[in-house]
Design a protein that fits this description.
Number of helices of chain A: 18
Strand order of the largest sheet of chain B: 2-5-1-6
Radius of gyration of chain B: 17 Å
Order of helices and strands of chain A: HHHHHHHHHHEEHHHHHHHH
Shape of chain A: globular
Number of helices of chain B: 2
Strand content of chain A: under 5%
Structural class of chain A: mainly alpha
CATH architecture of chain A: Orthogonal Bundle
Largest interface: A-B, 16 and 7 residues
Helix content of chain B: 10-25%
CATH class of chain B: Alpha Beta
Number of strands of chain A: 2
Distance between the termini of chain B: 9 Å
Strand content of chain B: 35-45%
Shape of chain B: elongated
CATH class of chain A: Mainly Alpha
Oligomer: heterodimer
Number of domains of chain A: 1
CATH topology of chain B: Alpha-Beta Plaits
CATH architecture of chain B: 2-Layer Sandwich
Largest sheet of chain A: 2 strands, antiparallel
């Protein structure tokens, strides 16, 4: 009871503070959106009504585009299954129920909060162009069908499709954190952090670029096609902040040595990575924001080439440094390549994407080894994959492809640093406050026995219990 | 009656089972165990960190036999389980006070 009370007060305080900030804006949020929509509709409604749109020549193209976007939303949704599988495969079976629970709740909480607050924080509308913060009002709704459900809204998708597609992205940022803090974080504390992180931090930084904010309004705009910075590095910074405050798993760094804690299922981990790769077809393919054949087909090719190159480079690096080809490193390598290409998948050719993937594959292996050396315990390599390669992928846009150039590189650095500082500081504060209010880590006995018993009173594999245990 | 416990290499289980069938043994209990003797463990590596695995997987075969057949059974087990390489395992023989078949409640040698 006490914990629920404390948690509710915490969430209420933050929401209240944020609501105050929203109200302090120049334009009142709800009014701004209604105004903009009414303006657009009043000026010259593109179609008299929905029937007119359906009879118009643009209807088939719009339907095709929207169909692709909805399919992409489903593919990104599937990535949550991928994350669940990778994370449970690379951790111990005594914590599997807990990992699966977190990976199930995070997308659910993400979609709900994104509907209530996140979507309108990330896309507050034209009134907030070039700004640092904007809010379009609580909740999602359509008041004008023609303005929201035809190509008057966007050439590639309806308002609803827009919301759904973006909501799937939002939850992945918090899911990235769950892998890094696995096996020792308290469930309730993690859920509080993830809720606040996905509801506020992710959309605010996302708005800076995708919502028309200041990163987009620079002379040479910051470029992040599908979210190497906005999604992946955001998750990575959150993960880093969490792992620093949380500390390593018991027995991981003992007697000056790094003691490996083996994942319990390589098949699950592999299944997860391939599901993630499949999901990336939607993650990058849908970031074209239409079914445009030229753009989408190129994007899917660069995406897959980078993934493949990441795997090969990770294999070579691991084989060379560690004398053995490590499967989990190769799996990380695929993800590293995917994260690396995500910032510029539509701006690269096959050669550039392979180079980006190769570098990502090398980086991820070195990062995994590095973080262990400095006692940052990341069971699944989330920080190495999403933060390190997210930064690399973002920089790569200034080095390779159509946008390569000094000015672009400068803009990329600005974006990386701005998002990084904001996200890391906010995540650090969030974790710190959660730790103060309700504790962050499970007890040593619970960690040893396994979070499945301690947090859930449950086993993941009840049929494989030693004889005599109920 | 004698209890014979044989700790053998896992891949030898089929061979040992067949050899026991050949000398007329109709039942046994098998457990998956880990252990080591003079055969040391080996080094493994996971995500860049090395660790030694000292306990190696073995199979323990337990049978209870009449005194008269004990030495025949021992011979069959040793012959079937031997590879000549380190880690082949060990067989232990002990005396059993009594045995009961649960279904029929037979006691003594007729229970085995």
């Amino acid at each position: 009871m006490k914990t629920i009370l404390k948690t509710s007060i915490l969430i209420a305080a933050i929401t209240g503070g944020f609501a105050l900030a929203a109200m302090a804006q120049d334009t009142t949020p709800a009014a701004a959106v209604a105004e903009a929509v009414a303006e657009a509709a009043a000026e010259a409604p593109k179609y008299a009504d929905m029937e007119a749109f359906q009879a118009s020549p643009g209807f088939s193209l719009f339907t095709t585009n929207n169909l692709w976007m909805m399919l992409c939303a489903s593919l990104v949704f599937l990535m949550h299954l991928g994350f669940a599988s990778v994370e449970s495969g690379l951790t111990r079976s005594k914590n599997t129920v807990n990992i699966l629970f977190k990976n199930t709740l995070v997308p659910c909480i993400g979609i709900l909060t994104y509907a209530i607050i996140g979507f309108n924080l990330m896309y507050p509308g034209g009134a907030f162009e070039g700004k640092w913060f904007g809010f379009g009002g609580f909740g999602i709704s359509v008041t004008d069908d023609v303005a929201s459900l035809t190509d008057a809204y966007a050439s590639g998708y309806t308002y609803w499709t827009d919301f759904l597609f973006q909501s799937m992205f939002a939850a992945t940022a918090a899911t990235i954190v769950s892998g890094a803090v696995a096996e020792r974080i308290k469930l309730s504390s993690f859920l509080v952090f993830a809720t606040l992180f996905v509801t506020f931090s992710y959309p605010i930084t996302g708005m800076w670029k995708w919502g028309g904010g200041w990163l987009n309004a620079m002379e040479t705009p910051f470029y992040d096609f599908a979210g190497s910075t906005i999604v992946h590095s955001v998750g990575g910074w959150g993960a880093l902040a969490g792992v620093i405050i949380l500390g390593p798993r018991l027995g991981k760094y003992v007697g000056g040595k790094i003691r490996p804690i083996l994942g319990h299922s390589m098949p699950l981990a592999t299944i997860g990575v391939f599901l993630l790769w499949l999901g990336w077809f939607g993650f990058n393919g849908g970031s074209v924001l239409s079914a445009d054949p030229a753009a989408v087909s190129l994007t899917l090719v660069t995406t897959c080439m980078a993934a493949a190159a990441g795997a090969v480079a990770a294999m070579m690096t691991a084989w060379t440094i560690l004398k053995k080809p490590d499967l989990s490193m190769v799996l990380n390598g695929i993800l590293a390549g995917l994260v690396g290409i995500t910032a510029g998948a539509d701006q690269m050719g096959p050669t550039s994407s392979v180079i980006i993937g190769l570098v990502s594959g090398v980086l991820v292996v070195l990062s995994v080894l590095f973080f262990d050396k400095i006692k940052i315990d990341d069971p699944v390599g989330a920080i190495s994959v999403h933060l390190v390669c997210g930064i690399w992928g973002t920089l790569a846009v200034g080095i390779f492809g159509n946008l390569a150039g000094g000015k672009q590189l400068m803009s990329q650095i600005i974006g990386i640093v701005a998002v990084g500082v904001f996200t890391f500081v906010v995540a650090f504060i969030l974790f710190f406050v959660v730790k103060l209010v309700m504790g962050l880590r499970v007890s040593a006995e619970e960690e040893t026995e396994g979070l499945d018993i301690g947090e859930h009173g449950n086993h993941a594999y009840p049929d494989f219990q030693p004889l005599g245990e109920k | 009656m004698k209890k014979i416990e044989a700790i053998i290499k896992p891949f030898k289980l089929e061979e040992v089972k067949d050899a026991l069938a050949d000398v007329g043994i109709e039942g046994m209990t098998v457990t998956e165990v880990k252990g080591f003797g003079r055969q040391k463990g080996h080094t493994e590596i996971y995500r860049g960190s090395e660790y030694t695995v000292d306990f190696l997987p073995k199979i323990k075969v337990e049978i209870v036999v009449a005194d008269s057949v004990a030495s025949t059974v021992l011979g069959a087990i040793v012959k079937a389980a031997k590879t000549g390489k380190i880690g082949d395992g060990k067989v232990f023989v002990s005396s059993i006070d009594d045995a009961i078949r649960i279904r029929t409640e037979e006691k003594g040698e007729s229970a085995v």
